[in-house]
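ok here's Bola-like protein:
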Amino acid sequence: MDDYEKKIFGILQEKFQPEKLQVKDVSGGCGSMFAILVEANAFKGLPMVKQHRLVNEVLKDEIKQWHGLQLRTKAV
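and the structure:
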């Protein structure tokens, strides 16, 4: 992971304490598009739309700078 991927990983790790977390820059290294997987207890009982909204809210300042986001979430 590069430094920016580590930053995103750290933000999500701190907020959700996920069982599984993956952050990958899929833009060829320029930091404009990410594929993120978050599997966390925090999502239990929430529909996927609400799970995604939680992640989007936590990353809103970062997402403003991106061209795209491939987000997968799952309750564990």
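+1. The chain is about 40% helix and 30% strand.
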